[in-house]
Structures are given as C-alpha cells and as structure tokens.
Amino acid sequence: MSEKQTYQEAPAALEESLPVAPASNTTGTRSSTDTIEDAEAQREHARSSNPNGFARTNSGVDVKAAEAEFLGLQRELSGISQTSRRLSRTQSKQKNLTEKDVEKTASSESEEEEPFNLEDTLRGNHAAEQDSGIRSKHIGVVWDGLTVSGTGGVTNFVKTFPDAFVSFFNVIETGMNLFGIGKKGREVKILDDFRGVTKPGEMVLVLGRPGSGCTTFLKVIANQRFGYTGVSGEVLYGPFDSDTFAKQYRGEAVYNQEDDVHHPTLTVGQTLGFALDTKTPGKRPHGMSKADFKEKVITTLLRMFNIEHTRNTIVGNPFVRGVSGGERKRVSIAEMMVTSGTVCSWDNSTRGLDASTALDYAKSLRVMTNIYQCTTFVSLYQASENIYKQFDKVLVIDSGRQVYFGPAKEARGYFEGLGFKEKPRQTSPDFLTGCTDEFEREYADGRSAANAPHTPETLAKAFNDSKYAQLLDAEMKEYKKEVAEDKQKHNDFKVAVHDSKRKGASKKSVYSIPYYLQIWALMQRQFLIKWQDKFSLTVSWITSIVIAIVLGTVWLNLPQTSAGAFTRGGLLFISLLFNAFQAFSELASTMIGRPIVNKHKAYTFHRPSALWIAQIIVDLAFSAAQIMLFSIIVYFMCGLVRDAGAFFTFYIVIVCGYLAMTLFFRTIGCLCPDFDYAIKFAATIITFFVITSGYMIQYQSEKVWIRWIYWINALGLGFSALMENEFSRLTLTCTDESLVPSGPGYDSIANQVCTLAGSVAGTDRVSGSQYIIQGFSYDPKDLWRNFGIILALIAGFLFTNATLGEWLTFGAGGNTAKVFQKPNKDRDELNAALVAKRDARRTSKKEAEGSEMAINSKAVLTWEGLNYDVPTPAGELRLLNNIYGYVKPGELTALMGASGAGKTTLLDVLAARKNIGVISGDILVDGIKPGTSFQRGTSYAEQLDVHEPTQTVREALRFSADLRQPIEVPQSEKYAYVEEVLSLLEMEDMADAIIGDPESGLAVEQRKRVTIGVELAAKPELLLFLDEPTSGLDSQSAFNIVRFLKKLASAGQAILCTIHQPNAALFENFDRLLLLQRGGQTVYFGDIGKDACVLLDYLRRHGADCPPDANPAEYMLDAIGAGQAPRVGDRDWADIFADSPELANIKDRISQMKTERLAEVGSNPKVDEREYATPLMHQLKIVQKRTNLSFWRSPNYGFTRLFNHVIIALITGLAYLNLGDDRASLQYRVFVIFQVTVLPALILAQVEPKYAMSRMIFYRESSAKMYGQFAFASSLVVAEMPYSILCAVGFFLPIYYMPNFQTASSRAGYQFFMVLVTELFSVTLGQMVAAITPSPFISALLNPFIIITFALFCGVTIPKPQIPKFWRAWLYQLDPFTRLIGGMVVTELHDRPVICNSAELNRFTAPAGQNCGEYMSNYFSRGGPGYIVNNMTSACEYCAYKVGDQFYTGLNLDYANRWRDLGILIAFIGSNLIFLFIGSRYLNFNRR
Fold first, then answer.
1. pTM of the model
2. 1367 and 554 in contact (C-beta within 8 Å)?
3. What is the pLDDT of residue 900?
4. In 3D, which of 917, 700, 669 has the Cα closest to residue 804?
5. Letter string b/e over residues 648-661, b meaning 16 or more CB atoms within 10 A of that residue's CB
6. Which H or E run contains 393?
7. Range in 49-63, 86-100, 1129-1143, 1291-1305 with the lowest mean pLDDT
8. Which residue blocks in 1333-1452 are alpha helix, DSSP H?
9. Is there a contact between 1173 and 1019 (Cβ–Cβ < 8 Å)?
C-alpha cells in the first residue's frame, strides 16, 4: 500500500474506531476552539467506552487505525498550534472567532504530499502547513563492502587461583592489558562483505541463527563501532560518511540492546521524563509549555504500548521488584523512541513479550516508520508470520555472510528456487533461518547438498549471482544518485537537527540541550534516585546518628587537661574518618552504573561528565545535612571548644573531607576496568592515606619517602586543620599523673615538669598551640592553607573524574569468547562419544529414540478450585481465580495467557514454591495431599537461569544428578544419564564450557538449555514443570526443545509448560492447553486437537472465528483480549468457560481419575517420604567439592584478598620500619598491633557479596530439595579456610618482622596464632552478617557500624580507664578486639627495655641542696614509672618509662591473661558460626 493511500484511508478508519463521531465533524464550520474541545470530549468518551484503546475489534494494533489515531492527535496539536498562532492565548479563550475547520485542513492536506507528522509534534515544529517550511529529517542508509572483524578463535581455559599470581607478577602483560595492547587472540571476521540500501520509511528484518552476527550488524549500522577490532567498507547515512555522522549527528542513529538497563528505583514515568528533559526540542507548538509537551508525549508512548497503568511503578531489575519483564522491555522501547532518531536498530526486542504484545509492538514500529519516515532495522527470534508481513525488506545472515537481502515478499520464493523445500505450516522467518542450518533444512526432490548451495560461502555466492543482487546494485546506484542530486533534503535534515536543539546548545554539539541544562536534568534525576531509595537513606542517617551518639558518650565532656589531649586528637580523627568512608560505597555504584551511562551517552541524552558534576552537587546537599546533625551531636556532647567559628570550621572541614574522598572513589571507579582492580587499588591508597594522616605516626616521625603523600591526602590535611582549629583555642592544665615527680612531699611546681609535649618546666599550664607544634609539627597559622589544598584536591578529583568519564568506556564491546575447562582423557572420550552420537543421528536424519528414557511414573496431579491471594498495601489481591485442571503422564500440557495473567504464579503454586500469600483449593497427587517428598519428585525449570557460574555444563548436570537421583542409583548410571541429556539438548560442543555470568559466558539460549538440562538430569519421578523454556531462543532452538519435551512425554513423563509466542508448528506438539486471562481466570482447559481443531471449534461456537491462515496460538490470545485489541464477543471468556459443559466434564474427569488412582495406589502406600534424595553426608561431600572448585576457579576473589592483606602489611611495615627502644616506639608498636583490626574491614566487603551470590543459587537448588542449608553454609565456611590461612601468613610476616618485633618463638608463635584467629573470626563474621541480612547491599551498610564499634572499644583509641562506665561495663568486655589488643600488646611489650632519646626527656631542676637521685628516690620507691638519666646532677633529665610493662599497666592490661584472651577470641568464632547456621536455617529472604 503506498503511503498516499494510507493517508487517504485514514480519516475513514478514524471514524470506524470512534464510536461517536458526529456527522457535523466533517462538514460545516465551527469555531476551531470548539473543535479542539469537542475532539477532546469525543476522545475521552471513546476512551471510556473502549478501555482497551483505539483499534478495530478484529485484530491487535491496526496500522490504519493507529495512523488515524496519530492523525487525531496531530489534528488536535495542529489545531492548538493554528489557533494559538493566530490568536493570542487570552483571545483564544473567547469562542466567538470562527476559523476554517481544523478537521478539513488536516484531511485535505493528507491528500497533498506531506501531512502534519507526529514527528513534527515530537520535534516541536509548530508549523503544520506546507508554506511555513516544515523541515523533515529523513536519512537513508547505504552500505557497501561492509566487513567487521573482532577477536575470537582462541580457546580460553578457565583461570584458577595460581593463574592470578602468574598474571600479577607478569607485570608487562598486566600493563599491556590495562592499556589495551598485547595478545588478543586471532582476528575473526564477524561480518564479511555486506551490501545493501534502506530508504527512509523502510523496515528491514534481520534474520539469522544466534551467533551468526545479527547483533553486530545492528550495532555497526547504528554506528556503534566500539569493541570491534576493525570495520571496513563504506557506510553512508544520506550524504554523510560514518565518521562525519558520528561527530555531528551521533544521536540520530540509535541501537536498542537486548537487555534492559535502567535505574531500578525510578518509576516508569520518571525514566521517560528524564529522557524527554534531555530531548525536548527547542521549537514546540505555540501555547504548549515544556511541561505540557512532556506530559503529552509520555502519555502517548505509554498508551501506545498499553502500559499506562505502570506510570508510577518503579522499573526494577532482577533484584528489585518492579514492573514485569515484558513491561520493562516496553519501557526500553519507549525510552529509545524518545530519542526520535532517524536510523533505529532494535535487537531482539520482543524477548519476553507474549505473541499478541509482540505483534502490537511490530505494528507500532510500522506506524512509527510510516509516519516518521525513519529507517528501521529489527532482529527478532521467533517472529510470527503476521510480524513478518509488517516488513519491507529482509536480510538473512549465515555465519557472518549475507545470503539474501531484498524484498520480504520474495524471500521465500528465492530460497525455494535454490532448491530448499518448505515444511508444512512453517512461518517465513523460520523457513529462512532454517535454510541456513545444515541440520534443519530439507532439499526439494532431486536436489541435495551436491547440487544446491549448502555452506555460508556457496549461499552468499548464489545470492551474488542472482537477479536480486543486480536489482540491489541498481537500487544502490539510483539511491546514491538521488542523494547527490537532492541537496534540499539534506539541508532540511541539517536545519531540522538544528531546530531540535534548545537555546544555548552549541551548533557543533551532538547533544540537544546545553551543558548546564544537562547538569540540571541530571540533578533532578539523581535527587529522585536518592530520595526514592528511602531504605538506604534511612539506614545511612541512622548509622550516622548512632555513631555520633556513641562517640559523644565515649568522649563525653573531654577535660581541658593533659588527660584529654591525646584522646581529643583521637576523637577528631575518627569523626573525619567515619564521614570520609561513608563514601566507600561509591566504588560499587560507579561500577554498576556504567552500562546506563554508556547507553545514555549513545542516545546523546547527556555527556558523562555532566553526570559526575550533577551527582556531586546532589550528594553534597544530602550529606551536608547528615554531617551537620553528626557534627552538632559530637561537637557539643564531647565539649570541644565552644566557639561559633571553631564549630563551623570543624563542620566545613569534615564536609570537604567527605567530598574529596567521594570524588576520589569515583575517579578510581572510572579508571579501573573491573571491581577487583578497583578494590586492590583503593585498599593500597587508603592505607597510605590513613598512615600518613598524622594521627598514627606524627609528621616529623614519618619516613621521608612516605611523607610527601600528606600533601595530596585529604584525610591528613583535614586532620591537621581540625587539630589546629581545636588546639589553637585551648590551654591545657597538667593533671597529677602527668606531673613528675608527683605525690606526697612533691608540691613545689618549680621543681616539677609536665610530661606532655610542648610543656615548659615550672608551670602546669601547656599552650595547645605549643602542644601540636611540638607533638605533631602542626602550626595553627597553616589552618586555612591546608583547607585551600583540600579544596584544590576536590577540584582536581572532580576534573579527573569528569574527563575520565568522557574518555574511558569499559564494557561496551561485543560478547567475549567462551571459556572451557582444561581437557583431560576422560572428558575427551566422553565428548568424542557425544559427537559420534550426534553425527550418527544427523546422517540418518531420523529421530533419536528415547531409548534409555523409560519413565515409569503413573502419578496424576490434579488441582481443583485453586485460588491464590497475596497481601498488597491496598488489601488482598487475587492472582489465581478458581482454576481446575490436571496433568497426567505421557501428555504435554501448555499453559498460556497474556503477560501478567498469572502463568508463572500458577506454576509456582503447583510446584510448592510459594512462601507468601494464601493458597486455597485442592492440589492432589493421586488423590492424596502431596507429602514431604513432593518437591523432590518434581522438577521445575524456572524462568531466570540461576547457576553456579564457575561450573562447566557437564558438572552442573552431574551435580544435579548426584544429589537428586536416589542414593541407591550407582554413580556410573547417573553419569551415563547425564551424557544422554547432553546429547538430547544438543549441547555436545559446550559440555565443558564454563557457564559464567550472562555478560560473559554462555549465551542466553545456551543458559536456557542448561537450566532445562539440570532439571532433566534429576530424573523427576512425578512431574516436569517448565517456565517459558523457549523465550529468548531462536525458533530453531525453541522447536528442538519442544520436540524434545514431546519425546519425554511419549516416554511417560508428565509435563506442564508455559510458553510464549509459539508458532503453529510448535503449538501442534502440545496435547492439552490451559489458557488464562488477566486476573488468573481460566478461559479454556482441554485438548488442542490436530491442527488445533478442538480448540478452534470451542472458540467458533462462542463467536470467535479463526481465519484459515492465522496461527491459532496467536489468534486465541487476540480473541480473549490479551493484546491491545478488545476481546471478540460480548461476554467475558472466563464466564463462558465457567458455565460450559467442558468445565463440567473436566470436574467429572478429575474425580474419576482420583478414584481410579486411589484404588491402585491406596493398597501400597509410599514408603519413601524423605525430604532429600540423599543423606546428609553425601550432600556435604558433593556440595563441598563444588564450593571448593568454585573458589579455586574464582582467582580474583582469593587473589584480591591476599593482595590486600600483603599490601597493607607491607605499607604498615615500611612506615614503622625498624622501630627502636625509644619512648615513641612504644606507642607505635601499639599502633602496628592496632593495624590488625583492619582485617575485618577488608574481609567483610569481600565475603558478604560472595555469600549472597551463593545464597541465590542455594535458594533455587534448595527449593528443588537438592541439599539442605547445613550443607550449604558449612561448605562456604570450610572453603574459605585455606585462603584464610594463606592470607594470615601473608599479613603476619611483613607486619611482624619489618617493624622489628620480638623474634623469640614463644612470642612470635603466639602473635601469629592471634592474627590467624582474627582472620578466621573476620571471615565467619562476614558470613554471619550476610546470613542475617537480605542483600549484600544492606550488609554493606552494617559494616561501618561493626568495624567502628570494634575499633573504638578495644582500648587503643581511648584507654580502658577513660571509657565511660556504662560502656566499660559491657561493650568493652564484649568487644572481640579487646582480646586481640590485650593479648598482642602485652606479648610484645613485656620485659622490653625503654631508652629515651634526648628530645623525649623531660627536664627539671632538683631543689637546692639535693641531687636528682635523692630528690626522686621517694617517687621511684612508691612504684613511679620511668628513670633518671644521671642521678648525680641537679639538672634532672627524666624518661617516662623504664620497661614496656609500665606502658601497658596504664591501659589496664596484664601479661598473665594472654592465653585466656586467645581462648575468648576463639569462642567468638564459635558464636559467629552458631548465628550463621541459625540465620541460614530460619531466615528465608527469598520471597515468592
């Protein structure tokens, strides 16, 4: 149908679809404002009378009607714009001015050339008439000799723990990988010599089997060339070559990927709203404000995809509950439509949509392409015939060769002409892809591989020799000529692009809004993201307040005496550190947010740098408030200097410290290719920062080569600023403890001295400024200089962050090569056998018999009156409504319905997987309530493919067989059955491939097969449930899987399976159908019949007559109103079925089957009611083996942890290298020991996500009753042990021997034991925290809490005597680190002599007539610490300690308790384990 006809018919179509269309509408004139209002009223009326949206009743989206609806929208908008153009807004409210009829104008225009396009509405070009010079944006694409190469062809073997060392110490290779040079594997041609042309307004369907290069073609055509090693040949977008196009009009070619990436906590409306904020054009219809325009477009898009009801629902992702998968897909589609690009590529965009929605989507694309005149490329798996009819051209790819490009109508004839035979009832897309599969295609009589094309090369050659290739050449020449001549069109394009920009956007920029507006739009979005994530917001506020109160109580009202000097420093340090490390979570979120940034950059919504700037501004707003509250609590509870200036300085320094660290973490997040690099990098630098901050080692005592870090260290500069701010306003008084000598008989201040740094003999007052000048080398006058450096650091980090964000893109390349297990003899034999079997099967072309597949189950599952209600905030919601049905052995039952009809819910209920909500009605096996062994006897292949990513396919299947087939079956038999399953699922080539993550690893359809394989390997006795086993597969794989299910059924298995988009050939394989409609009501349950005759007959009797060429599976969904089309007939199909004789028959049949089976089974009741198929010892053995392997094959996990341990120990060891015997070294030794307490901080962050990931897999496997939670939890604890011991050794050696600690084996051995126990304690603590929290995200929020509490109360930062009584009574005793410090400090300092250096001596004069020895004798005889250097003079030089023991008695520690402390620490490990096992047993966070 030519465009013109479409538009001519449009007004008629509109009248049909509007039930109320007054005749006066097309004749006579009325005031145009009336018309607009009337049109609105009509549309509202029409909408209420037809809730399913506008469309004719016989099919989904009717292209004509939809175009007419667009025209309707256009008319309103052109009406608004015309009216407002000629009248000012105020006048337009008066109704006395008549104007030419808007309806007429629009329809008469449509007969001329260029109608008012919706494009112009979205573009905001208000001129509807020809003469105002509408500029349209049309661009065709022509490609010639297009060849794309990528890396591949190398078999990668899985990396294990030792490989991490090799690659780490191989510095050169590491460096090369970081900068992206070095060996990459061979180059392979992904696409080879493609040519073709697509004009504006044409749609091209790209077909090919998975892996043949469809995605690559779509990406390259949309000008996304990142991640490929080479792209040669020419691609022209109109007159522009690809480079020019990329520079000037990057946003005009867009690509929609298969996976949906969105911010999960934004609602659907907000997601589209943000897109519009960055894409709202500069010119809009007059009288339409930006807000109205945005509102209108969002509503139109949501209506177009039938998802208006989700407008205020969050989008969600696999971990955050949001809209359903199909709805999320539609959000992605709508988001890309907002970009209003001229060249659009859609990659498998119907994945997860049901048949009717998929067709609606294809039709809306057709409408858009017609009205927008854009150039559209689409790849689809499982496209139906009706979808195929929407396309103009089709491109068929076979292993990277172009084997057909031409009119879609003639493709089928072309391949038949080559000698291929079509199978009955095979859709065109299936036939075309089938021709490229050597095992699928069949040759016509008299033709065979010998005399017909049979390889990608011969097929490509055949095409190049055909008439279609010549026609294509002609068309390309013609088009190029047209482009060369028609300059006007491309000037229009340039002007249109220019007009769509907002005021202030640069002419050269590819973005349509200026930079400051991008930042503003992003600030609004970031604010919503933060604000709507109420949970993390609350948690971080609570953490902040609680820590503030704890700090406030521990350092309550610090005295302004010598006793409060060091502790005051500790308080300032911790206040700064805690807030700075609130920012640590930025690392993760920067990494996770990458795909979204990449996508938005490709859509030209905003520059990446704008995001970082917007984010820091929003963060500042949130954290400034939080830090303010924190500062008020801490500052005034602790009694720091009461001075307004001092308080605000304190506050500002902390805020700036937070900002600097946040930006620092974000910069690292932008720099590092993956999370492991980032963690290593961050750990190294943070250690340097903390050590050079001046609290743990004073500036003057630091090693010279480490000291310079202080100047680029926001923590150090911040700490010095806080100290200068506080102490410059203080004068401290010396207490008796600090005066020497003190006690009875020493009362003359002239002969005493204060031991505090900065003191002067003969007075008990110490100036705070002198204290920090002498003790820390800080000068109060440097305060603002340091603050200035912090601000410079912030600016610097922000700048690097923004520039790195622009330059570096990670993770945008193509899929990586598969990774395999290293081969060995056994596996090679097995694989050879599999391949031989496959070849035999293929050459004989006959079905493999289900030989070993004898399944002797006779059990029947029945369900009657099944209801399921879930609690929602609005009250109970019924998801399943009074469903009857049964599944019996030897039959394949299909469960179908629209998206959201409750199919998965029904499977979950039947498979006993639900743990929330109320189920009523009967579910019976053989008429008896199912017992504990029911879940074990059924297999349920779920929709999400959750697998242990480090396993190979064969290992996954064997694991399942080992644990789920009864223990009596010998292992050899189980494994033979696994080979059987591998062969049936045609997974011969990937039996030893590592499953991996969805991003890198097996492709979607291969993962799907593994999911099904794992369930089959269990050899279920009763039933097999499958949830959408075919979605995401191409039609070929889908057909194989269904054919295989059919085979299983005929071998005696009972199978119930939900299915999306089945074509007629697939649908025929099912014996029985259960059809649901929205609200979980049954529409039909019964036989399908040959050619679906039984089903169609039922529909016909009730007024729905299926056209002969339609696919019954699609038609029935349309008939019951599953798509956008209203249902056929005037009665609800669920009511029809409820009153039908069919239902009555089913009820009889069910009761009949129950009595039959009860009679057979009743006599011999089942003996085997075990919950699990295997005993606990067997579970422990198998699960432990797998967990060990998983750790061994995650080299990054173990190595990153080891690296962090070693590097922190090394840096600490270097900073405190070779400590001497002087007084300062005593304090430093305690600090070195205190460094051991950073172990939990390191380990928690790694152990928790690991546990949570394993737990997700455990939830899936335990619901199938593979193994119990004890096996799961204990396997993780045991698997961590060897790595923990290794880490403890790597940590202990540098941190113990470099600072010159005591080497006697009785001491060193004890210390090592202490470090090892701390390591194990941290690991079990991490697992325990993970076990009692629902997600690693929440456990990460608890970590700072745990770590800070532990570090605060162990007696280092504030000695035991000074801890307030309340905390000292219980928390000091409960803190595991109290034992760690207690044991290690006394072991190190016991009997260690102290010799002061001259700077550390305190000098005072003895009273006249006494020398120092006589004057001090009383003081020493009463047990006073320290010694006098020379007793014979009267100018006394006093050293505060004589032996290490004197130092720690002040801390209330005792050498006698060291073994007791070790024992208590070990007991803490025990308590962790107890909580871990209890938590993993009784807390189930898997809500279903």
1. 0.81
2. yes
3. 76
4. 669
5. ebbbbbbbbbbbbb
6. strand 393-398
7. 86-100
8. 1336-1352, 1365-1374, 1376-1389, 1412-1421, 1444-1449
9. no
Q: What's the pLDDT tens digit per position in 1349-1390?
A: 898 898 888 888 888 999 999 999 999 999 999 999 999 999
Six-digit token string for 1019: 């050899």
Alpha-carbon distances, residue 1026 vs 950, 1045, 1066, 1084 (angstroms): 24, 10, 15, 20
What is residue 904's three-state secondary structure? helix
Q: How many residues does the chain have?
A: 1488
Question: Exposed, middle or buried: residue 1406 (CB in 10 Å: 0-12, 13-18, 19+)?
Answer: buried
- The token pair that represents 42 in the structure block: 């009509």
How far is Cα 1122 from Cα 1169, in angstroms, rounded to an integer?
42
Q: Which two tokens stand for residue 257?
A: 């990927």
The answer to whether the CB of 1234 falls within 8 A of the CB of 1145 is no
Contacts of 1138 (CB under 8 A, 6+ apart): 882, 1082
Write a three-state SS string for 119-144. HHHHHCCCCCCHHHCCCCCCCCEEEE
The residues, any chain, with a CB within 8 Å of residue 842's CB and separated by 6 or more, are: 439
How far is the CA of 944 from the CAs of 47, 194, 1012, 1057, in angstroms?
Answer: 37, 36, 11, 15
Tokens of 775: 């003790």
Q: Considering all CA atoms of the chain, what is the largest pairwise distance in Å, rounded to the nearest integer?
A: 131
- CA-to-CA distance for 1149 and 1159, rounded, in angstroms? 15
State residue 1110's pLDDT score. Answer: 81
Q: What is the pLDDT of residues 1096-1106, one digit of tens each?
A: 999 999 988 88
Q: List the beta bridge partners of residue 231.
A: 148
**CA atoms of 1363 and 1368, how far apart (whole Å):** 6
Is the per-residue pLDDT at 1208 higher than 90? yes
Three-state secondary-structure class, residue 1351: helix
Q: How many other C-beta atoms can be found within 10 angstroms of the C-beta atom of residue 795? A: 12
CA atoms within 13 A on the CB side of 1238: 23
Contacts of 840 (CB under 8 A, 6+ apart): none
Task: State the Cα–Cα distance between residues 1208 and 1237, nearest whole angstrom.
Answer: 12
Q: Supply the angle between the helices 290-304 and 268-279 in degrees, to the nearest 10.
A: 130
Tens digits of residue pLDDT in 52-75: 433 333 344 556 665 665 665 555
Phi and psi dihedrals of 375, rounded to 5?
A: -110, 120
Q: How far is CA 1276 from CA 905, 1250, 1329, in A?
A: 32, 9, 14
Omega of the bond leading into 318 within 30 degrees of 0 (cis): no
Which pairs count as long-range contacts for 501-509, CB under 8 Å and 24+ apart, including other chains?
501/281, 501/282, 502/280, 502/281, 502/282, 503/282, 505/282, 508/248
Under 8 Å between Cβ of 460 and 402: yes
The torsion angles phi and psi of 245, rounded to 5 degrees, stand at -60, -45
- The owner of tokens 């060369």 is 484
| Assigned token pair, 1167 | 């003996």
Assigned token pair, 742? 């003190």
Distances (CA, A) of 1343 to 232, 587, 1219, 1329: 52, 15, 33, 9
Q: Write the DSSP symbol of residue 863.
A: E
Hey, what are 537's tokens? Answer: 């917001």
Say how far apart CA 1351 and CA 135 lie, in whole Å. 68
Residue 582, both tokens? 């609130």
Q: Is 926 exposed, middle or buried (0-12, 13-18, 19+ CB in 10 A)?
A: buried
Whether pLDDT at 1407 is above 50? yes
Triad 70, 75, 77: Cα angle to 5° = 95
The confidence score (pLDDT) of residue 117 equals: 37
Which residue, 268, 261, 944, is CA-closest to 596?
Answer: 261
In whole angstroms, give the CA distance from residue 11 to residue 175: 66
Q: Give the list of residues 6+ apart from residue 482 with CB closer than 8 angstroms, or none.
A: none
1126: left (phi over 0), alpha (psi -120 to 50) or beta: beta
